[in-house]
């Protein structure tokens, strides 16, 4: 406890999954958290300030930053499209870049000046193992956007490295979350077997299981805290050995 004492954090997509697990861990470690999501109903039960924030809305992003005055910015919002390059539509491509990448440009642009004024900050961007780390099957649009997140992260880290700002990306393997359960269900419909779909997701994880959201939140907490003070500009992989074989 108290690893984040005295720090203020802004978290996007904190309603469920990794974002929510991270909000809970940040709170438990003593941070003052503003937990945000597009769907406010999902923020219920979190023991911190909450706010409706759609990361595609620049005005809402600026309001959120003004309210949180964050030392820690966790950009967690993202969406997973299914399919290959031949399946992808222009709309899916545009939506994914808007939500998964441009949203981070906007939140960082809004939060960085305050961090610089106060003399430091830690920015954590949600990427994925399915990015420039590994090519995952049927993740063309998604993997492309998550690779872009790594480039964005390195660029921000480089430009502010001497001014107290750190910027890192998190690259998880498969993580149990509400949207993951939806993806398993959708694949199950396609294959005609829920069990087969579950096996397809689990078998690509060499540990024979997917991650719990808390296992990703633990890395976010480390990157948010001063324990990681010498780490910036990196894609931190937490994928149960998926890409490390
Ligand atoms: P999830 O997909 O189950 O939940 C996503 C949350 O984002 C929801 O609370 C939703 O309301 C919110 N959201 C959606 N659009 C939004 C918007 N425009 N503005 C604000 N909030 C919005 O959660 P998850 O599976 O833990 O995924 C969280 C992040 O982690 C995503 O960026 C995802 O790509 C990434 N990720 C997930 C996995 C996985 O296997 N679950 C693996 C690697 C990376």
Automatic annotation (TrEMBL):
EC number: 1.1.1.-
Keyword NAD among UniProt keywords: yes
Entry-linked Gene3D superfamilies: NAD(P)-binding Rossmann-like Domain
GO molecular function: oxidoreductase activity
Sorted UniProt keywords: NAD, Oxidoreductase
Pfam families: adh_short_C2
Enzyme class: oxidoreductase
InterPro entries: NAD(P)-bd_dom_sf (IPR036291), Sc_DH/Rdtase_CS (IPR020904), SDR_DHRS6-like (IPR051122), SDR_fam (IPR002347)
UniProt record similarity statement: Belongs to the short-chain dehydrogenases/reductases (SDR) family.
Protein name, per record: 2-keto-3-deoxy-L-fuconate dehydrogenase
Source organism: Jannaschia seosinensis
């Amino acid at each position: 406890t108290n690893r984040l004492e005295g720090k203020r954090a802004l978290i996007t997509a904190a309603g469920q999954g990794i974002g929510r697990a991270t909000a809970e861990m940040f709170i438990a470690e003593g941070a003052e958290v503003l937990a945000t999501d597009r769907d406010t109903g999902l923020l219920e039960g979190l023991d911190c300030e909450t706010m409706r924030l759609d990361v595609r809305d620049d005005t809402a992003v600026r309001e959120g930053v003004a309210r949180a005055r964050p030392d820690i910015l966790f950009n967690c919002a993202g969406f997973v499209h299914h399919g290959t390059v031949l399946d992808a539509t222009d709309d899916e491509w545009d939506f994914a870049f808007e939500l998964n990448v441009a949203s981070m440009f906007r939140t960082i642009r809004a939060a960085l000046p305050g961090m610089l004024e106060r003399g430091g900050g830690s920015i954590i961007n949600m990427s994925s193992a399915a990015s420039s780390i590994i090519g995952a099957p049927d993740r063309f649009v998604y993997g492309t956007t998550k690779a872009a997140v790594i480039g964005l992260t390195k660029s921000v880290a480089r430009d502010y490295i001497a001014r107290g700002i750190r910027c890192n990306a998190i690259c998880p393997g498969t993580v149990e979350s509400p949207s993951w359960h939806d993806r398993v269900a959708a694949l199950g419909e396609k294959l005609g077997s829920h069990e087969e779909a579950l096996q397809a997701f689990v078998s690509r994880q060499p540990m024979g299981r997917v991650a719990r959201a808390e296992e990703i939140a633990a890395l976010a907490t480390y990157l948010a805290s001063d324990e990681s003070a010498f780490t910036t500009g990196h894609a931190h992989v937490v994928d149960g050995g998926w890409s490390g074989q």
